[in-house]
C-alpha cells in the first residue's frame, strides 16, 4: 500500500459520508501501523486514519479550520470598490469646491 492508495481510500470515504466538493489531500504520514491522511476542504479539515495492514478506516476527525487574521481576509474586490468610491468622492468634492470658488 502506498500514499496514493491511502489518499484514494480516505477521499472516497469522505465523499461517501457527504463531503463531495472541495476535497484536497494535504499530507499522508505513516505512524504506528496506520496511515494518517490530512485533507483540506472549504471550511473544514479532515484527519483520516487508515490501518496499514487491513486497509480499513480506523477513525476520522472533522474539525473547522482555524480562523485567519482579518488582514488576510481583505479581498482585492473590497480594495477596488473602496478605491473607486474614494475616487468618485474626490472628484465630486473637487468639482463642488471649484464651483464655489474655494
Description:
The chain is of the alpha+beta class. The chain is about 40% helix and about 30% strand. A four-stranded antiparallel β-sheet has the order 1-2-3-4, with helices on one face. It is rod-shaped. The mean pLDDT is about 90.
Relevant terms:
102 residues, 38% helix, alpha+beta, four-stranded antiparallel sheet, rod-shaped
How much helix is in the residues?
25-40%
Cα end-to-end separation: 79 Å
* Beta strand count: 4
H and E order: HEEEEH
What is the overall number of helices? Answer: 2
Largest sheet geometry: 4 strands, antiparallel
Radius of gyration: 25 Å
Provide the low-confidence segments as ranges. Answer: none
C-alpha geometry: rod-shaped
- Mean pLDDT, as a whole number? 88
Structural class: alpha+beta
Placed side by side, the strands forming the largest sheet appear as 1-2-3-4
Taken as a percent bin, the fraction of beta residues is 25-35%
Draw up the topology in text.
Blueprint (H helix, E strand, L loop, with lengths): L2 H14 L7 E8 L2 E7 L3 E8 L5 E8 L11 H25 L2
Antiparallel strand pairs: 1-2, 2-3, 3-4
Task: Report a brief summary of the structure.
This protein is an alpha+beta fold.
Amino acid at each position: 500500500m502506498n500514499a496514493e492508495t491511502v489518499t484514494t481510500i480516505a477521499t472516497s470515504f469522505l465523499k461517501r459520508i457527504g463531503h463531495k466538493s472541495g476535497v484536497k489531500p494535504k499530507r499522508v504520514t505513516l505512524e504506528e501501523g496506520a496511515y494518517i491522511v490530512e485533507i483540506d476542504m472549504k471550511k473544514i479539515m479532515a484527519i483520516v486514519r487508515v490501518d496499514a495492514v487491513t486497509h480499513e478506516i480506523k477513525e476520522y476527525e472533522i474539525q473547522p479550520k482555524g480562523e485567519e487574521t482579518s488582514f488576510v481576509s481583505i479581498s482585492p474586490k473590497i480594495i477596488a470598490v473602496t478605491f473607486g468610491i474614494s475616487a468618485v468622492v474626490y472628484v465630486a468634492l473637487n468639482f463642488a469646491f471649484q464651483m464655489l470658488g474655494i
